[in-house]
Amino acid sequence: MKHAPLVDQLIHAFTCLPGVGPRSAQRMAYALLDRGREQGRRLGDALHAAMDGVQHCQRCRNYAEAELCPICESPKRDASLICIVSTPADVLAFEQSGEYLGQYFVLMGELSPLDGIGPRELGLDVLEQRLQGGEIRELILATGTTVEGEATAHYILDLAQDAGVQVTRIAQGVPMGGDLEFVDGATLAQALRARRPFES
Ligand SMILES: [Zn+2]
Predict the structure, then answer these.
(1) Ligand 1 center–CA 69 separation, angstroms
(2) How far is the CA of 55 from the centre of ligand 1 (A)?
(3) Residue 50 has pLDDT above 80, yes or no
(4) Reduced to 3 states, what is the DSSP secondary structure of residue 106?
(5) What is the 106 CA–ligand 1 centroid distance (Å)?
(6) Distance (Å) from CA 37 to ligand 1 centroid
(7) Of 131, 108, 134, the residue nearest 120 (C-alpha)
């Protein structure tokens, strides 16, 4: 038995999502067609609106609905302090901490030559221009500690040093309230290397 063409089309469309294979896609399509017509219509509307209305902020590359995102547009944020992160989710994490008043640069990935992700794909040519422009005082590196994250951090370090811009890196280490026995060795070693004087 074959599906009706529109059902097939729907199933196929779901397979574009990360981690969704043909069987999961089929389950999703059936669920919406059987019991979720209204949610399905809302999903379609949300997809349409986002695909047409979301762009990348021209300063920081985060998702935005205008040329600049609210953070880059805010006069309260220090434009001379830029935190480099890999994804928009990282920006949210920093914002939730409420501690950071600088701006961001969102790479939307990390260097991964085998996957065809080079400096241009991460907007590093744009970052280099901004660094050379002289408005940035300090770059804070907050990329991941994977091999790709490290390679990305070192590439950006070179760009910043060429431009004479100070670079710092967030301390990596032991989570608050975490038990040391659950922390992996690499994290613990990094936390040890990044230790600071203990003061009252
Ligand atoms: Zn922005």
Answers:
(1) 4
(2) 11
(3) yes
(4) strand
(5) 8
(6) 36
(7) 108
